[in-house]
Specification:
two-stranded parallel sheet; globular
């Protein structure tokens, strides 16, 4: 897997730059309201880390484990001395009753699982940024996905993240799969193969964000405000943050557990297996 090998030379993930600690409004808000800002993940970090003790790129491994424990920083320059310390960009009402009902249900779910804080408000606290939310239909279904729009209007969160800083992610593709199939066929020309694909549910949402970024991920709906504590769909660095973690999972699977011909495309893992050596597992839920 090119993705697994990429981890052996990847650069470490960044931590909040020194300038973030001059944003005294945000620091005071985090200090005064600790219950709003939590860093949590269902990932068993100690187990994950123990499986990577002999990974050849320890600075990269340590940066991912630090992100899981303390929250990730999304490669952002927030311009703390130039841009507003507090900014409300939340004005985008639901387009339909169906969207409104979806927002109610999804926000309630996000609060229940701890991805959103409990509600506060009605006003933003010092140092906070609020971006609008919208519902994106899931193809082929009548369901929606909640997306925070980090790109709209002036002072958008995505404008704080440079394209150059998040470039260079190495993803497996169909060509990698074809090359693996060809190599396997040379070894086992008569094998009957099953192809499989596995999708990680709510993948990005398992990655916690640093409190100094959480303070900029405020979500508002019907006059109520919440802090989005996790890696958000719609963030420019969201894919890269998740990929950093998942690429190490693939490295563990290939080099420690010896699952060969394993590939990954963001949160989709895929491969093939001799039909007679394939073992199916029950659905796993977080």
């Amino acid at each position: 897997s090119r993705t697994a090998l990429w981890t052996e030379s990847a650069s470490p993930l960044p931590r909040p730059p020194p300038g973030e600690y001059s944003n005294f409004d945000a620091l005071q808000t985090i200090h005064d309201h600790p219950a709003l800002f939590e860093v949590s993940t269902p990932i068993k970090i100690d187990v994950f880390e123990s499986l990577l003790v002999d990974h050849p790129n320890q600075p990269f491994v340590c940066s991912v484990c630090t992100g899981l424990r303390e929250g990730f920083w999304p490669f952002a320059d927030t311009h703390p001395l130039e841009w507003p310390r507090t900014h409300d960009n939340s004005d985008r009402p639901p387009k339909t009753d169906a969207e409104r009902e979806f927002f109610y249900a999804q926000i309630e779910r996000e609060v229940k699982v701890g991805c959103y804080s409990k509600l506060f408000g009605p006003d933003l606290l010092p140092g906070m940024y609020n971006m609008p939310i919208h519902a994106v239909p899931k193809p082929g279904t009548d369901k929606h996905r909640l997306v925070t729009d980090h790109s709209t209007r002036k002072y958008a969160l995505n404008s704080m993240v440079s394209h150059e800083d998040i470039a260079g992610v190495t993803l497996n593709n169909v060509q990698d799969l074809a090359n693996g199939l060809r190599d396997f066929r040379h070894q086992s020309p008569r094998a009957i193969l099953n192809h499989w694909k596995d999708d990680v549910s709510e993948a990005y949402r398992h990655m916690p964000m640093h409190p100094l970024w959480q303070v900029k991920q405020i979500v508002s709906f019907q006059g109520k405000r919440y802090i989005d504590r996790q890696n958000a769909f719609g963030g420019r660095a969201s894919q890269r943050i998740y990929h950093m973690f998942m690429s190490l999972v693939i490295w563990i699977a290939i080099f420690k557990i010896l699952i060969h011909f394993l590939y990954i495309y963001v949160h989709d893992s895929f491969s093939f297996k001799d039909k007679h050596n394939l073992e199916l597992y029950a659905r796993v839920t977080a």
